[in-house]
Amino acid sequence: MHYEVEIGGRLRRIDITRSGDDFAVAIDGRTRQITATRIDAHQWSLLVSAPGKSDTPGRRVTYDVAISVDPAGALTVHVGSTPVAVIVNGRRRWGPGDKRHDGAGAGSGPQRVAAPMPGKVVRVLVAQGEVVRARQPLVVVEAMKMENELRAGRDGTVSEIHAREGVSVEAGALLIVIQ
Amino acid sequence: MRKLLIANRGEIAVRIVRACREMGISPVAVYSECDRAAAHVRMSDEAYAIGPSAPRESYLRIDRLIDAAAQSGADAVHPGYGFLAENADFAAAVRDAGLTFIGPTPEAIATMGSKTAARAAAIRAGVPVVPGSETALDARVSDAELVSLAASIGYPVLVKAVAGGGGRGMRTVHAPADLAAAVRAARSEAGTAFGDSTVYLERRLVRPRHIEVQLLGDLHGTVLPFVERECSIQRRHQKVVEETPSPVVSPALRARMTSAAAAVAKTVGYTNAGTIEFLLDEDGRFYFLEMNTRLQVEHPITEMVTAQDLVHWQIRIARGEPLDLDPAALLAPHGHAIECRIYAEDPDNNFLPSPGRIVSLRTPDGPGIRDDSAASAGLDVPIFYDPLISKLVAWAGSRPLAIARMRRALGEYLVTGIKTTVPFFTWLLAQPEFVEGRFHTTYLDEVLASRAGRPFVESSDEVEDVAAIAAAIHTALSAPANGSHGNGRAAAGRWKTDARLEGLR
Predict the structure, then answer these.
(1) Active site residues of B
(2) Which residues of B touch A44 (CB under 8 A)?
(3) Domain range summary for chain A, segments of one domain joined by +
(4) ipTM exceeds 0.85, yes or no
């Protein structure tokens, strides 16, 4: 089976051949032997062979991995305790009940910036039609006595502003859309 | 004392439940709408609903808490920290209802809750406060008087609005020549912002450390201080890492700071658990900052190095028991303890709160590790409260070993479904400034600003390869019953097809 997995803007092409718990995985053309044992619905134990031409071809490295969908709907693979955001076959958003919805993320399509918690809009930092860069602060929401900056997930243009300064918002309220 | 109502939630409520169990006291929980299935409810003997999820409609409702206490027949109330823990009216309401409040008297809470009254108490006790003008300075004070006052306080001096807040109406002055202009500007700004143009002067401490002293006072006049806690690692004035002992406090300085703390507490007849906070300057001079009239979030590190249980002592003191402890032992730490406050926040997105459902949870364990938490897989971190998931504490025989142990424990910590500050702590505990103990209260904000949002998680190519492989295998093998991966059935079907094709080859 063929998969395309994008991590941090880099695409890895993966071909998997299965034999029970054992997998031959070609990752960008280099084949590695994997044993994958399922722990529960979200967690796996992997034994991974050293890549390609290794000094120690018999070496088997153990990894505990856990797979989940974060609040923004992105698929996250924890390798040990290190979270890695992944995009599988171009799919950016996963959600409860598997409803597809476009939104925040580093990809194409509109980015919908929503309030992550109930609070009050303190400042709107961008204007309609403004060109914004990834990580640029867009709006400041005060919650639990802390001011929280919501930032652009990627470069784009502000197409909609629903946030109004001084107005209280519920969790999930749409504040800004970036095209 | 047979039954104790815990007027709180989260990890501190669980902490108090545990102390109750150990002491043969029946714990009673209260809960808001979103906390019905929270750990503190399930671990208690009884539980009472006190209203909607918003704190002001539940955990801050004195009337409902007193009603729940009456309904349960509890004879004592523990406020935890936060919420109503430093509310003198709540302590008084508990007392007026004929119940025992596990904490200081309402009078002590009120006195130490006022910045000026607390400062006055410290001065009465002969304890240094941050040098400053004792009275407000209005427009009638001449420039010459200002210069002479500033000279007696010492430069750099802060000009602060009496009614101030949020940095407005505040100026730093380094030399007498700039003083008059700065005072005029501050008065003007303060007048516009707060409708009160009076200002006062205070020495601006350069790169101070935040050092605090835990103490206990019994009902018989004994006040005992504990070895200091170092709490200088702060983000936007919020503590994120605490440790004890401080890497810069010598036994001689400890003796002076702890006896100063005890003197302040005795001046106000303080009882039960409390903490005196000091600023420590680069020359080793310390100044009273304020008193917290409650159990602190970071109390576990003190417990780890002194082998005392502070919640047990809070309850024992409230029952009238004397503090029969060896004072010297409380000032001689056994080993070193560090606490990381693990929050549901996204460190790679400016620490934005990341509430939501925890999918998987694996907590660290093993030698020297303590995890005070109320989180569990399958439950939400609610949006309504402080998003603290856990207080992870590492104890070891020395500071370097405690850091190594904490790093090991962070590597074991797995929380999926939400973002946490675990990757941030993994980064912080590797910083040379932290490892060498060279930091102050603005260190973290400065270093975070200089990073300009660079991600804390910098995974290696190998880790990314493994993540990609795992994602592909998981996607291929996940059944459709797993709601997150709707293509499972189709994938399983393809597996059969692929397997058959391979068989034909």
Answers:
(1) 294
(2) 470, 473-474
(3) 2-98, 111-178
(4) no
